Amino acid sequence: MHCWWFNSFYRLAGWLSAFSGGVVRDQKIYCYTCGTDEMHRRLTADEKAWLKNRTGRKTVEEFFMCKAPGCRNLRTGFQKRPFDPVIRMPLDD
Ligand SMILES: [Zn+2]
Hints:
Blueprint (H helix, E strand, L loop, with lengths): L3 H16 L6 E6 L4 E7 L2 H11 L7 E4 L7 E3 L17
Antiparallel strand pairs: 1-2, 2-3, 3-4
This protein binds zinc ion.
């Protein structure tokens, strides 16, 4: 039998797995530069290294990149616009 706390727990478990690199790798979340909800993916090891160097951050685990063609805008799971001006992942692949 499902009730509200079961659903809340289920949603929280899915949310936690998304942020711990679990089963959910791509997420449909709002992209500030597209102005719409777009699929975002986690960064590769090379991209993480690039972003750490670019921003001086110690950790960039919370970042996602927009998969819309030609966008590659970066955001975190929490903030739709963590950088001002925005940072886009350079095309090198
Ligand atoms: Zn986008």
